[in-house]
Design brief:
- It contains 2 helices and no strands.
- With 155 residues, it is mainly alpha-helical.
- The protein has one domain.
- It is rod-shaped.
- The N and C termini lie far apart (160 Å).
């Protein structure tokens, strides 16, 4: 193999070509690739952070919804129990009033019955005389009245 000046010029021109290509072509491409990789890394990190934040917000939302549901259920249960107690109270009051009214009515009827019996006891002699006059056609006087017999008949 022979080494001459063309070989040396070829080596020098190859080295110069490689250096020029590196300066003009490869370094800018490498710089662009590095910038894109950095951009992609930053974007992926931001996307991951946003995803984590979204998961955190979603978890908080679920917790708040769950708490709101529990609060709503407890409020509904409380209102239902208060309504039941109120209804029971009103029912008991109405029952007491009706029992009182019934007792008053019974007492009044019993009182009226006693008054009527007393009036009948007082009028028995007169009624008996009137009935006997109508049946017999003549007036007859009753001198004695058996109160025990009258009480048995009225009761």
């Amino acid at each position: 193999m022979e080494f001459n000046a063309t070989f040396l010029v070829s080596i020098i021109s190859f080295v110069v070509f490689t250096w020029v290509m590196n300066m003009i072509f490869y370094k800018p491409i490498d710089k662009i690739i590095t910038e894109r990789q950095d951009f992609i890394s930053e974007t992926a990190k931001v996307a991951q952070d946003m995803s984590d934040e979204a998961d955190k917000i979603n978890t908080e939302k679920e917790a708040k919804l769950s708490k709101a549901n529990e609060d709503a259920k407890s409020l509904i249960n409380k209102n239902v129990s208060e309504a039941k107690e109120n209804a029971k109270f009103k029912t008991d009051e109405a029952k007491k009033q009706s029992d009182s009214a019934i007792a008053n009515a019974k007492n009044e009827l019993h009182s009226q019955a006693e008054q009527t019996k007393e009036v009948l006891r007082g009028n028995v002699k007169e009624l008996a005389e009137s009935i006997s006059q109508k049946i017999l056609g003549e007036e007859s006087k009753i001198d004695t009245v058996d109160n025990e017999m009258i009480n048995k008949v009225i009761s």
